[in-house]
Structures are given as structure tokens and as C-alpha cells.
Amino acid sequence: MDPVVGIDIGGTAIKAGRLGPQGEPQPAAARPTLIENGAADLCDRLADWARELGARAPLGIGVPGVFAPGTRTLVESPNLPALEGCDLRLEVAQRLGWAPECIAIDNDANVAALGEARLGAGRNAGDLAMVTLGTGVGGGFVFGGQIFRGGLGQGAEVGHLFVHDRERCDEPCGCGRWGCLESFASATAAMRRARRAGLTDDLSALCAAAREAPGPARELLVAIGEDLGRGLAQVLVLLDPPTFVIGGGFGAALDTLLPGIRAGIAERDFAQRHPQIVAATLGADAGWIGAACLAQSEGVRAN
Amino acid sequence: MDPVVGIDIGGTAIKAGRLGPQGEPQPAAARPTLIENGAADLCDRLADWARELGARAPLGIGVPGVFAPGTRTLVESPNLPALEGCDLRLEVAQRLGWAPECIAIDNDANVAALGEARLGAGRNAGDLAMVTLGTGVGGGFVFGGQIFRGGLGQGAEVGHLFVHDRERCDEPCGCGRWGCLESFASATAAMRRARRAGLTDDLSALCAAAREAPGPARELLVAIGEDLGRGLAQVLVLLDPPTFVIGGGFGAALDTLLPGIRAGIAERDFAQRHPQIVAATLGADAGWIGAACLAQSEGVRAN
Question: CB B237 to CB A167 under 8 A?
Fold first, then answer.
């Protein structure tokens, strides 16, 4: 099997690599996104890099943002606003002399979920929901071995599930609504909650303190876990995945969050399920690996 | 095309009918469920009725309850507890001398959603979520033309989505949790809320009053609609259906609920979507029609 190239475009860095003949990940060194140079320049560099990596169609791309229903045009990308309105797939394909169908493109959270499902923590898990705890809270679903995007393609937004009435919120979510999971359980929210509790907002130190002994750090991480569990319960109610994969930088706190997560699920899930809850294993490589997997599934080969 | 028979088993009545050669619904007169005579007797009568209707494999059955993951055995059926532990598909197939695969069986809410999607309100709508407002609040999803059951088959339980913290609840949900949509927006909940507001708990009269003039009846139905909209917003966040089909007895109040539903979605959906929200059109026939549609999709033909 030819190597398949995957590319994951982040706000500050682009990651890429190849899946080798036996499907083994061969990561390349990351490069800066330099979005300030504009979308056309970025597309030039993406095509050049794909060529350097020996990409042959199909190629996979992950990108943060939301596509217009039924299209591959980004309509919203808070971290890469210069790409809004850009049909990245078409632009890169033209530069490579390919048909657009030779490039498979999706949301970064969706491709990361596919990567973990195929080659990471979910390798033997069947259907799964991935939840990424970073600056925000991202989500991606893999059902029947494929990304599940929902009807118009803007599903799986786990971070904007509602977990509390406004009375229990101290701040609105970045989206402007009140009570979203993201405003309770992202890394950013955890740091804010730690500061309000008079604790360190260094999340590694906070987790270390929680692991060491009972006390306010452990209590806070259990409370954050409970809110996360309240959100996961909603995913269970609608999608019933047997497995959750928890990723993102703050996902490293999973062991300290888990007692709270189980309590939050128990509080809110009518069916009292006990899904597997496991840590992501591909780290920052999940995106490009998943993009390459997406290319294998959905990208059209060149003649 | 041979006529296809569908059967919908309810707590008190069984409905059945045929889809004719052009797919036209031909309902039969309902019969009593008589579950008090036991599961074996019910299976005898189902097989007899299927024969009377000229059923040839495949046959479709809808039944209230939850199946054990990966099986067609009911593990929970609050309205028909005598069927718990029963592999209804196998039992009926044996009586008909068929292989079990010749019978397609699913949850009553799932088959009703498929019926509305194929021959009812969702006929031209593409993907949809159906929400049934009755004694409880049921849900069924149709994506890509097929029932979407979620990972282990217990998804689409829209009625147990969380819509409020405990502080805003006056009673727990029937499931024992606090804050489920069902405890705010089922017909039962609407009657309770009407009584607490000093209004009639005859829901037809309540809706008539709300349609006639502004006042407490209209305000209550808007408030119930808001809670329903808060639940639908969670469905949008995870599954992004372009269309909701609202059914069940209390679904007849949709016109009075709609302003509230829109407000509830606006309050909770980060993407500020405006999905289509339409009334179901098949009424009490949705279940058997959907069961017959399921048989067409998933049932195995006899040789």
C-alpha cells in the first residue's frame, strides 16, 4: 500500500506525516502555520509540503472550524479566520493538479477522533466519542468505523452541551450562551476555577496536589469531573457510545477527574451506564493520523 | 412488490397494517394487547394476525422498551414488563416457520420516526429527529434514510436529556433523575404544570385558551415550549438534524408551543440554528408503518 499523507492545520503549527505501508505512523517535524501571510500562501505551503512528503492522492487534511452544510468551505474558524470562505480542499487540489475528491478534509476534532479510533486508544473499542479538553472542549464521534457528522455536519459539539442553569454559572461561555460544558471543564475553565478557589492555576501542579492527598485541589478536580460527567451523560442519552476517549492537554488530568466523571454520569444518566473512559494515546499526532485515515476511507485515488 | 406487514405493540392496543404494492398504507383495525395473558399468548396472536394479513417475510415489529446490546431481547419495557427477557423476534419467527432474520424489530419510537421519515411529515426532509410528546417524551433519529440507534442501541432517549438543575425542578423524572426533559414537557408534565398554575389540565382546552388570547394559558405553553427547545438544542449540538418532527397526543399543541421552542433553542444553541419543526402526520399509524418500512430495509426475504 502506498504511504498516505495526513495534515493537521492548527492555529499556530501544522503537523503532518505519513502512514507507512503497514499503516505505521511516520510523523514529520511540525511547521508554523503563519496564517498572517494569508490563505493563498498557506495553501501554497500545504501543497509543497504534501509533495515533499511524497503524497499521492488521496491526501487527508484536518482544520479547525465549521463547514457550510453540504460543502467543504469553512464558514467559521475562530482560530484561523483568514480561512473563512476558503474551499481549502479545492485550493490545495488545484495546486497539486488533482481533482478535489482526491483530498478528504474535515474538522480537526473529527479527524482526531478517527485517528484515536483507528490507531490510538479506541483501536479495539468499536464506536466511541472523543472529548478534547484544551482551550475549549472539542468532540468527535466515530460510529461504524466512520466519522459521524450529524445531519448538517455541525454535530459533535460536546463543548456546547448544556450542563447547568445560569444560576450556577459564574461566566458565560465563549459562544455567548450560559451553562456550556466548555465553560466548566476546559483547561481554561479549570484554571479560572482554580484561581477562584485560591489554588494554583498551573494544572500540572494542581493535579499533583490532588493525587497526593485529599483536600481542596482534589475536591476541585472532582467537581470539574462531575460537570464533565454531566455532559457525557447527555452524549450517552442520545448516542450511547460504549467508550469515551479523553484527549487534549487537560486530558492528562483524567485520573483525578474520573471519580467526578462517574458521579456526574450517575447523576444524569437514566440508564446508569458505565462506559469505558480512557485516555487518548496519540497526543498531538491524533489529528494528522486521523486525517490520513480519513483519506484512506473517503479520498478518491488518482488514476 | 409484495405487500409488507408492520405491527406496533402498545401497552393496551396492537396496531398493524400493510404497505401495498405502491407503498400505500392499508391499516387494519387495532386489537387489544392483553399482556395479562402472558408473552407466549401474545406471540401466538401476533403470528396468527400476521398470517391473516397475508404476511410474507420480511415482517416488521415495533415494541416499547430497550433491547440488550447486540441482541433483540427486551431487557426493559415499563409498559409491557411481561416481555422482558423475551426474544420476541425469535418467538414470532418460530411460530411462522421463518428464520429470525426475516423479522425486523425495533423500539416503538425508532420505528415511528422511520415511518414519519419515509411516508409522513419527513417525507422530503432528509435527516430528522422525531420527538413524541405523550405520557413520556420519546425520541427517534433517522439519518441517511435509516434509524440511527447509537453505539449500544440505547440512544435517542430525548426525554431524558437534562434541561434544568435540580433547583428548578418541582418533581423528579419517572426515571429517578432530576431535570429530564420528560418531567417538563410530556403531556403528563403539562397537565401537572397546568394544575399548579391553577389552570385546566384538559390539554385541548388549555391550548384553545392559549390560541384565543394572551394570558396564563398561553404563558404556560410558551414556558413548556422553552423547556422543550432547551432539550432540542442539545440534539442540535450533538446531531445537527435539519428537521424535528413533533408527534404524540400533546404534539397537537405544537402551534402553541412553537414560540417557546424557538426561544429555548436560541437560549441554548451556540450555533443559533433554525431547524424545521413540523407536526407528525401519521398519528397512531406511524409505528406500524415504520415497522413495515424497517422490514423493507432490514428484514431478510424468505427463499
Answer: no
